[in-house]
């Protein structure tokens, strides 16, 4: 009996040991028609319906899996190919499948979908990615018309962009910094040139720390399909004036060379109106604006695949904006109170932006072991002339001219090294040099400006050198990453050839990430980062930014950077029907906050004239939450609801008219709470016909100088596809009920209220045509199809 029991225990141990033995599955994936390897195909190992493990094929098509000895089904998938499946039993230490040939889908060879059918919101580890499709939420002339449809992002009446209620956001184009203002970026990039928009709200130490509320990365189209293919878009927007936009996207890939390019042109006339009332003396002001904008943009580049381990890439972005605006400004006062003011102004401006990028990527033998070296140079040149015709009371017409001529150069050099030390550990190190040179010139013959201020030259130079290291590990369902960035910052401002401000300091910017994957469908992550918002050129430039008879704006060259410590918690839940929900909360501590100062203009004799500039204030707090979902209700109906709330404590100095009709300089402490809601619904009426309904609501927000009122709108549209989805026709009505108006009220510097309106209600009609053929190759560069760095680091997605 003892012998039998011992034998049974022995056999059980042997079986247990055998069951725990693991084998290796290897192979290489090839395209059957052209006999070339297929990189980044998805290889899954299944036991029944459950996925045991999976991997993506390498650049040369090879793959390797490890699993316990058992019976499995191997499945190989890649876009544009038929799925390969095979049942087998893993009984040996190594199971080599040799060469697996994938057969292209017949329908894929007839045409290439360069642009997705529908915009989607994808929650990744460290960012939210809005993949811009051909659906109706993206139909319009410029990037600005897309941005207001994105959760947590708002664009105000002047084109300034904010993220989570804060304008201190860093704008990137294709993952690279730009020295254009957000207004210029949104104006110059057509919506049809955008592939995706990435919101990185709490970046790791791998990223440059600028931007208090995070990073918005605008990714332009780039294609890597084999052969020659492309797409063409044209559309018109009908409102008070007709606006037109056209774009062309081309790609040719053969062997080791891939050439890509896209170009666009847009033209539009715009009408804007403002009506304000100073209620203490019942003095109205009318502003009427008519403008013409022409925008040209193109991007061309090439990738040279030297071999399986080395790639050299180059591209350039070029854009031009020509604008011409006529503005009429009329302020009338009660009889005998003050002299009425009438002003006609013509603003004529040109802006040219050029960027050049050269990148080299080396893949080491170990998977994920990479070295990237990249250089980027950009130049932004702008001129803006203002011709003024001012009449004050019964005096003579005052004719004068202001001229601004600005040049800004930015050079960056990056080195990024990634080394997966083992299957669960990754080390990333890198360095960056950023050299910025800005030259601003102002000249005026305005007799109201003191002669010493009529010709000004301001130079603003920044040198930033930094290095970072991040270290991350995964333990089962838990993962973490810690990192820090050491940065040397030097700035010098010269006015008229004399230094008027300089600063030089070294700072650490740490980041920490913790992730927990509760199940395949549930993921939590908690992150911390320290960031900085350095004063922009417009905030530091002592040259006059704009001027009306009653308001002048100048920068403050002595502004200090404001620093932010940010904590963020996010949760993502995936459902079996491809639905998902994402929720997040955040808290920020802001030190040396930058905000507006408004006081009497010492250079203007008008008693109502004000001067606006900027200054640093004490520490403040901000917090908020976000909730968004992608819900597939039925096979023909899906919807994407989103809400976000932000609350920011702000401090600023303003002027206030007292009882003796004198201006007092007062400090204001307010809490600016903002609530936004969006609801996008897509309806699939048939295989080719789709409808869309979009609603937007923005609650009122208290501000330092004024309180804005609520805004809301409803859009609707339809899209019809034909010629096997190669041709699509779209129509959209924006702001059906014409409810989008910017309304405000204020007590500073005196009691007033007003409203600004624009051509919000409009009808857009567009046509998209796709041509050419080829198969998708998901090739990498940083990521070669997006021209942007990969997640870079906040944890779980790195392993």
Question: Cα-atom Rg, whole angstroms?
Answer: 29 Å
Shape: globular
**What proportion strand?**
over 45%
Look at the helices and sheets and give the structural class: mainly beta
N-end to C-end Cα span: 51 Å
Number of strands: 45
| Unreliable parts | 1-19, 106-118, 776-799
- Helix amount, in percent? under 10%
Major sheet size, sense and barrel closure: 22 strands, antiparallel, barrel
Number of DSSP helical runs: 4
Topology:
Blueprint: H1 2-20, E1 22-31, E2 42-47, E3 50-56, E4 62-68, E5 71-77, E6 84-89, E7 94-102, E8 120-123, E9 128-131, H2 143-147, E10 153-155, E11 161-163, E12 170-173, E13 176-177, H3 182-188, E14 194-200, E15 215-220, E16 227-238, E17 242-254, E18 257-278, E19 283-307, E20 310-331, E21 341-363, E22 370-392, E23 398-422, E24 425-444, E25 455-475, E26 478-495, E27 498-519, E28 522-533, H4 537-540, E29 546-548, E30 551-553, E31 562-574, E32 580-591, E33 594-600, E34 610-616, E35 620-634, E36 637-657, E37 663-684, E38 689-698, E39 701-702, E40 707-708, E41 711-722, E42 727-734, E43 742-746, E44 752-758, E45 762-772
Parallel strand pairs: 1-7, 12-15, 30-34
Antiparallel strand pairs: 1-4, 2-3, 2-5, 5-6, 8-9, 9-14, 10-11, 12-13, 14-15, 16-17, 16-45, 17-18, 18-19, 18-44, 19-20, 20-21, 21-22, 22-23, 23-24, 24-25, 25-26, 26-27, 27-28, 28-31, 29-30, 31-32, 32-35, 33-34, 35-36, 36-37, 37-38, 38-41, 39-40, 40-43, 41-42, 42-45, 43-44
